[in-house]
Site-specific integrase
Amino acid sequence: MAKIPDYVTVRETAAGRRYEVRIEVGGADGKRRQQRRRFRTLQAAKDAYAEGRGDRSRGTQVSPTELTLRQAIDSYLDALHVRPTTLTGYVCSLRPAVAVLGDRPVQSLRREDFEKLVRDLQAGGVPSTEWRKPLKLRASVQAESGAWKATTIRPMLARLRKVFERLLQDGTVPRNVVALVTPPPAEKFEHQTLTVEQVQTLFRSLETDRLEHLHHLALQLGLRRGELAGLRWENVHLEGAAPHVHIDATRLHTEAGAQEGPPKTEESIRDVPIPSTLLPVLKRARKRSREEQLAAGTEWVGVGHVIHNEFGAAYYPTSLREFWARALRDAKLPHVRLHDARHTCGTLMHLNGVPTAVIAKLLGHTDPAFTQRTYAHSQDDAVTAAMATYAKVLGAKPKPARKSRRKV
């Protein structure tokens, strides 16, 4: 039987034998106090005692607090200065952690708690919660969430690491336990894009559509949905030697409705040249807009948006996604997301020899390496054509050797 150290007291309780240790902790007034803790095993008691002594020697002792994980997350989110859509994404990713561990004090949470949360999310059936859900959506809250993939679990862990990083800086916890959790491996995801032939088919089917310019702007300039929704005619320069579109605003969905503001990054503010294939489309759209304004008369409510309804009102950003899906159905093309029009633009430019750095500048990316990873993947038909070219090279008959004409 292992020897019981002097600092461990054996207690016989109704639940069985427990091993008790007194651990020094820092008080809110700066004075040291002792905290009694009981453990099921002798080794766990010894480990806790050693951990407390180590924290004391390193000067990392923390004052006891009942701050819960939910309170810590709320404090972290309230201190952020991000766009409403970004904040909504953070809230959605953190909701399972709040549902399962939100009432636990942060000082009681261990790595194993978050590892179990990850396993439960992968299996599905984690309880849901109304935490920070808009009032109009609370009626749709389900009792349990479905299974989560690595692509959604990894952002949750990233946010939780930030929460505990803040707690560590404040001296509330002695270590960032979430940083010890190994995230599930990232799943390989390939964006779906349209081929040149499919793009041409879509354009032909849109020749009489009043919103043809929406789809041309998405595919030819690679604009984001918010950039499409927020674009105004004052930033579309159709005349002169260098027609271009100036991107400096975005229109996004929020809980309070659609809101306009600056782009997310400085690189997103950019001038994009208008290609010759897009110029006549935009001229038709501007003419159509002026005709609709005359027809609407006093009912015109427009303030200069490029993409608007018959009375000039800008469409809600999510409506653009519906228009895109309908256009693909009408053209009998496979469904891809509206954002995949942006992927199509970047991919086709890459396949036609445009340098990655140039693509990054046109699309408003901060890091050209991100452009390479995200958009510069090859389509199946391009891969097939490349292998066919390679086969021709290998199958070509060798040229006969030239005879030497040496004088005797």
Remarks:
- The chain is about 45% helix and 10% strand.
- The first strand starts at residue 8 and ends at 13.
